[in-house]
Amino acid sequence: MLKLIQQGHQFVIPIYQRAYSWTAAECDQLMADIERAGRDDTLTSHFTGSIVYVEKGLSNLTTQEPHLVIDGQQRMTTVMLLVAALARALESLPEGTPVPLPDFSPRKLRNRYLVNNDEEGDDYFKLLLSEKDRETLKAIISGTPCHRTHQRA
To answer: Where is each GmrSD restriction endonucleases N-terminal domain found (predicted)?
Structure first.
């Protein structure tokens, strides 16, 4: 999934998709799968589930249009949250502490998997959730407070 995210300019969750709804149980299962795969040195890849998306703008060479995620948005969002948490944890290490794996520096994690560094506005983010969750994920990735208002039903 990280290769897919790294290669794609931007993924957008269409408005008709449900909001992010994974509970701790689903997140724990995904984390257990990731940890199990990470402990096996013989694995060169691991299937974390399918991501179905529509590539748009293939005939337009001047701009890159976002890919619309049809299935797998819960898993993709959770992986993005894990990468953001890893980047933040590595940033909080005391200065001079060597990064355990050079490819996992906070800057490289952000630039490869979380943001489009040369873009601005919404185009800056590699994943845009549907309207209900969009500002929250953007705030997490940016490291800024979320100013989204919560309405009571």
So the answer is: 3-143
